[in-house]
């Protein structure tokens, strides 16, 4: 069953009387528990689409539904930067959303402690973001996103600022957490390997204006593995090539 549907969305930015058509007729659904990646060239409108899905931006045409209703409560958003508040402790950062949801202090602290433990960061509640590495901060951001128990997580290149090893480790952690909390996710990325390793389906977007060019089902022998295992599986290379060719064909069609 579809948890989120993007219904024929168009978007045009208007600035200083210049109209830039960024998205055209984007239509797709994401099933409960599914992991979908959106892959496309820089500037093709991926972040714009994610902002529309999160309800942060009103599309020029079309709409988004969450479980059949016009959205947008219960969506978690995780970005390239962790956006932790530097003056708040890790515990305060993770419990912030829970406080807004009127959790009492003890409940909020327990939830934060549990989540920090599951992302491999026990005993850091009283520390401040500046005392943590980039990878640790993104793990805190993941705990904060999951704390409010969103129905769907929207991930906008959350690993791109990390070193390669931290990125691979966080990919595995995110997938494990999504599985254990039975969450649905949509990831925007430039990284074909990351999209293959993490997803069940990959949406390839063309540019100017951004449109859905092709949707790949990730072969089940890869989709059922952890991201790290998928990257080293025998069929990874051939599938990588198919996705790569599709992106290359788009580049040539726009540059010719
Ligand atoms: N607020 C805005 N006003 C006008 N144009 C904008 C605005 N935000 C984005 N754009 C333009 O819309 C297009 C799509 O931007 P968007 O950030 O959605 O693309 P993207 O695929 O996420 O890019 P990247 O992969 O580089 O992050 C770009 O040409 C960008 O310059």
TrEMBL record:
It comes from Metasolibacillus meyeri. One of its GO terms (molecular function) is ATP binding. Keywords: ATP-binding, Nucleotide-binding, Transport. The keyword ATP-binding applies. SMART domains: AAA. This is ABC transporter ATP-binding protein. InterPro entries: AAA+_ATPase (IPR003593), ABC_transporter-like_ATP-bd (IPR003439), ABC_transporter-like_CS (IPR017871), ABC_transporter_ATP-bind (IPR050166), P-loop_NTPase (IPR027417). It comes from the Bacteria. Pfam families: ABC_tran. Residues 6-232 form the ABC transporter domain. PANTHER family: ABC TRANSPORTER ATP-BINDING PROTEIN, TAURINE IMPORT ATP-BINDING PROTEIN-RELATED. Gene3D superfamilies: P-loop containing nucleotide triphosphate hydrolases (3.40.50.300).
């Amino acid at each position: 069953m579809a948890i989120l549907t993007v219904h024929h969305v168009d978007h045009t930015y208007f600035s200083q009387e210049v109209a830039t058509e960024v998205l055209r007729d984007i239509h797709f659904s994401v099933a409960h528990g599914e992991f979908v990646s959106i892959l496309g060239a820089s500037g093709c409108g991926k972040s714009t689409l994610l902002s529309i899905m999160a309800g942060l931006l009103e599309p020029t045409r079309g709409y988004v539904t969450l479980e059949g209703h016009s959205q947008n409560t219960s969506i978690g958003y995780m970005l390239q930067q962790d956006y932790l508040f530097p003056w708040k402790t890790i515990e305060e950062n993770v419990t912030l959303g829970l406080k807004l949801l009127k959790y009492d202090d003890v409940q909020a602290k327990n939830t934060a402690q549990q989540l920090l433990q599951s992302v491999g960061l026990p005993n850091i509640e009283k520390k401040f973001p500046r005392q943590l590495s980039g990878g640790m901060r993104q793990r805190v951001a993941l705990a904060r996103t999951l704390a409010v128990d969103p129905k769907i997580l929207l991930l906008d290149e959350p690993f791109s600022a990390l070193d390669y090893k931290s990125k691979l480790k966080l990919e595995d952690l995110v997938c494990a957490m999504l599985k254990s909390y039975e969450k649905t996710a949509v990831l925007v990325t430039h990284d074909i390997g990351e999209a293959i390793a993490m997803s069940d389906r990959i949406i390839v977007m063309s540019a100017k204006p951004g449109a859905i060019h092709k949707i790949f089902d990730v072969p089940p022998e890869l989709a059922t593995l952890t991201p790290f295992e998928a990257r080293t599986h025998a069929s990874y290379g051939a599938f990588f090539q198919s996705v790569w060719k599709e992106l290359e064909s788009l580049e040539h069609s726009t540059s010719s």
